[in-house]
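Pair request: fold both.
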Amino acid sequence: MLKYVTLALIMGSVFMGWTWAALAVASIAVVTASVFYLLCFNLIAGLKESSLTDDFSVAELGSLRVVQLATLAFMWMTGFHIAAVFILPWVAIMTLTDVMSLSVRWGWVEIEPSDSDE
């Protein structure tokens, strides 16, 4: 749902000239990236666990990455350079995670559970 709101705001800013839409897009992207960075901190600190899954829609995954890359490019072109640099690691990490998930789903990479008793 959020990707459609972001896309609508980008289109409104580009085609309709809504000046407030660029700030709204930057705000949504920065808040979303901040939540992601908080999750990463919790994973690194050992407060949360994460796992890869192969139960996802490839089309949904691809459309989400396209919207995130469009948001990044839009923010750079509209002058929100600091916000664009802030969300760049989020987009890069999510893209690499998607590549890993697709590799697992298509059988290029196998993940076996580790024995945590040892």
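--- second member of the pair ---
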Amino acid sequence: MNRDAIARATEQAYVGISDIADRAKDLTERVKDTYRDAERGVRKLRIATEEGIQDTRRQIKSRPIVAVALVAAGAFFLGGLIGRFSRRGRR
């Protein structure tokens, strides 16, 4: 009887360990897939960013006066907003 109990316990332990090993393999595969997807996303984002930078450079080179005017208008607008909000805090 004692040998049967030990044999059953051993068998149950093997089943439990193999179940844990299978779950670990599944989890590993999921993590690998997620990592690959993240790598792909980062690669696409990097390419899109580089293309955007190239487009911006082309626009600046083709119309430098417009680029300077846009930057000046943006700076003027942001300066006005910052000035308005900083004055409100003093009152």
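Observation on the second member. The chain has two helices and no strands.
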